[in-house]
Design goal:
The protein is of the alpha+beta class and 191 residues long. 31% of the residues lie in helices and 32% in strands. The longest helix has 30 residues.
Length: 191
């Protein structure tokens, strides 16, 4: 039987468990991490961002002109990529953040493929100042989701018979700033 190692990280403290925990040791570790007796977060007021779960909400890959589109092409296809970030509060400190990707290679009758991905994560924000919640949700959370989205897109295009489409890193700060500027412009127009 193979035994595994575990690493427990909570705030600034790190516990490393060797080859195996015994029941008594496991109980002591959990008791030492709950010394505030069921208090708010066990982090003594330190800000924290926790990724609770990540999942693919929707994935669609279309190869409408196969098998013709899988052969050699006379010219490089025009690849268009659209990225959107969305978020909604689902509990007092929990937010569902979505990162959607729409990618196309080619156009109209020469469309090679079309990919739509809606990838989401549930994040818990603890002890975050109110003025920093929106930037964290719309910048840091998508930044944490992005490597997984990039891999899913690359795998889907490769599995569809094309070279993998590796998305370049995305500047989520710039996307957030655009969103804020658009919101301010909309408010100015309304007044």
């Amino acid at each position: 039987m193979r035994r595994t190692r575990a690493v427990l990280v909570r705030g600034a403290e790190t516990c490393y468990a060797g080859p195996t925990f015994t029941g008594a040791i496991r109980k002591e570790i959990f008791m030492s991490n709950t010394e505030n007796n069921g208090g708010s977060d066990g982090l003594n007021g330190a800000p924290a961002l926790n990724a609770l779960v990540q999942y693919t909400k929707d994935l669609s890959f279309e190869n409408p002109n196969a098998p013709r589109s899988l052969g050699p092409q006379e010219k490089q296809p025009n690849i268009s990529l659209q990225v959107n970030v969305g978020a909604q509060q689902i509990a007092q400190s929990d937010y569902e953040v979505s990162l959607t990707i729409d990618a196309k290679a080619g156009e109209k009758e020469d469309l090679l493929f079309k990919l739509d991905l809606d990838y989401r994560g549930i994040f818990r924000l603890i002890n975050i100042p109110e003025d920093q919640v929106q930037p964290i949700i719309l910048i840091e959370c998508p930044r944490l989701l992005f490597p997984f989205v990039r891999q899913i897109v690359a795998d889907a295009t490769r599995d569809g018979g094309f070279p993998p489409l590796f998305i370049d890193p995305i500047d989520f700060v710039a996307l957030y700033q655009q969103r804020v500027a658009q919101g301010e412009a909309n408010i100015a127009r309304a007044n």
